[in-house]
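Progress report, Aim 2. The chain analyzed during this reporting quarter is listed below.
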Amino acid sequence: MRYDVAIIGAGVIGCAIARELSRYDAKICVIEREDDVCSGTSKANSAIVHAGFDAVPGTLKALMNVQGNEMMDKISKDLDVPFKRNGAFVVCTKDQDRSALDELIKRGLANGVKDLRIIDRDELLKMEPNIADDVTYALYAPTSGIVCPFNLTIAYAENANANGVEFFLNTEVLDITKSEDFFVIKTDNDTFEATAVVNAAGVYADKISAMANAKEMHITARRGQYMLLDKTAGDHVHSTIFQLPSKMGKGVLVTPTVHGNLLVGPTAEDVPDKEGVNTTTDGLTSLAPLSSLSVKDVPYRQVITSFAGLRAHEKDDDFIIGEDSQVSGFYQAAGIESPGLSSAPAIGVALAGEISRKLSFSAKSSFTETRKGILDPDTLSLEDRNKLIKENPAYGNIICRCEMITEGEILDSINRPLGARSLDAVKRRTRAGMGRCQSGFCSPRVMDIIARETGIPVEEVSKHGKGSEFIVGTNKEL
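Predicted structure tokens for the chain:
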């Protein structure tokens, strides 16, 4: 199979690049080893759209962060993705040097961040009553926001797919060789040929780069552990509360989510295992005392789940974006750690533009810029909801009681472009299983629906792809 561009990795960066390349008359594919898009770093992060005051001026992190932040309103509207500019604070306690806030505001102004200011405790308390007692000052960044990383990645992928991009899931890249004018990409399923290759492989970007004999890079998997609290705790803070950053990151934050929960985390620890997404007792127990430095009385009895994600930290501490200096036609989108989610719109536009100019692509007249997400019946009036249920009774059948997700929403998640084929894929698209019981009651019903709609035997329906199946036999067999 021959393509103009093959993108390796279907996280938010790979999918953003795919969507922007789908604007052109070109044959594009995305190769992803997992069973779904958004299965790596993009599914487990802080879900923050950073304002851009932290990155060192002049770096790609700074440039892409600010540009991506400014693009997020239009992207979220065009792709029907939940996004809210809730603002952020970086707090300073009485034991810390306020000059660190002054340094951050200087960085922010140099990076082009708008409306930054330092406020005192009295003003801060009016905005965030649960701020910790020792906090004295804070940097306020009103342009900071929160987004759903699942929705954003899936929306990019669906829009790219609707515009002709082919996705090959459950397909792992094993080797890359370069002939005179194209690349040969060997996978565990098939062999692909492409004029250009984009490396958006997250924590595996260094391995993919080495396969292509591109410039050497070293990616460290930096694990961040989080705790997610129930929606009853969602208004404990209204803005994102950061602590003064360190060399390991932006510290433990406390933030609401766009869906109404409260999120606390992450830790920051370098791990040798690029699959090391397990949580640890030490990591999770550290979150409460650390978060209390900025926010008091966090109701940790309302924790409903914990999780960990891996950031792709490159040793030079900056994004690597653009054509490789050693291999023509091989493009890097590597080392995309925080603020990668915030930067995704800008990275997608920048890299797609660079590739289209190099390969002389012409703009597509039939490009569809918008995408409609899964209908949420809660957004309808009672009259419209009753009308919907009358027309389609599946929207009157509640499958997930915690999140009040209907069979109609689950059917949509399965039958739309790049439809869900596992429980986690349904969960990311609909939130079925994300509530208090964490799939304890709804998972068998979701499995039955997946099997019924796709023809996959229920014994083969999995949590997140091959090797994570639930059913091992029947009662009588055991």
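The chain is about 30% helix and 25% strand. The two ends are 45 Å apart (CA to CA). These observations will guide the mutagenesis work planned for the next reporting period.
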